[in-house]
Amino acid sequence: MVFSSIISEKLRKWEEGKTENKSTSKICYSHDKIKKKILILKIFFSIMFASLFIILTKVKITSIIGTESKFSMSVIFGPVISKFLGIGFGSSAIVFAHALGVLIGLYKIKSLMSYFIFAPIIFAGIYFAKIFKSEKKLLWFPIASIALFILHPIGREVWFYSLFWTIPLVIVFGNNMIEKMVKNYVARVYIYSLGSAFVDHAIGSILFLYFMNIPKEAWMTAIPFTILERLIIAAGITLTYLFLRISIKAMKDIFVELTVLESEDLGKKEVLLEARRSK
């Protein structure tokens, strides 16, 4: 991080025309190399996360009430991908995982819904990635889900089920208050994970409602199970995020150290070449 800050400061001065010497050019060159390496790392982690995601989709947890489908461990891993890789790379990793899974026969396209089966996790990932930055546009996820649920004839009969999705709504509205009042970092992550878990639930519910017309009895039966289920999933997201955060930070530190050493070696080579030229 310190090395990156030094580079950024030097680049800023260079762009303003304050420094135009050879040393700044070397720093720009080093900075370009770092950007390329970061891109390579993102691609590497995207492939690695996509592979792990595919494996976890096959580890089933519990049944989804009113359907023949089951939840998998991917619901606790998928949402954190976009937090580390960014929304573009994170969402692409899940789409790639789905496409690869279909290609090699792990997933079957049984209906139109099969194409959107991982959409809930992608939206949950966007929410989890942005909620740390107090992004107010996230309000549209639960608002749209509530509206779509109530607009459906079956959903209208059990409209109160959509009240679950006011939880991510309240978290977005109260984000600044959460940051001030909840001092424990792990507790804050859990709250954000809970919001993400309910976004996943909201998008998934809309898909199942519109594509499968799940009867009102199933929605009412699911209410007590939904509460416990989402609390557990939020805990899983929290633990996954904290584990990956520690692991990736350690990898980043190693990467920065190696980059610094490489830059120092480059500097020494330049000095030796200049010394030989001057002879």
Molecular structure report:
With 279 residues, this protein is mainly alpha-helical. It is built from eleven helices and two strands. It has a two-stranded antiparallel sheet with strand order 1-2. Helix 2 runs antiparallel to helix 3, helix 2 packs across helix 4 and helix 6 runs parallel beside helix 10. It starts with a helix and ends with a helix.
* Helix proportion range: over 70%
Main structural class? mainly alpha
Distance between the termini: 39 Å
Give the H and E element order: HHEEHHHHHHHHH
Question: Could you outline the blueprint of secondary structure elements for this entry?
Answer:
Blueprint: H1 2-15, H2 22-57, E1 60-63, E2 70-72, H3 74-85, H4 87-103, H5 119-131, H6 140-151, H7 153-157, H8 166-173, H9 175-181, H10 185-212, H11 216-278
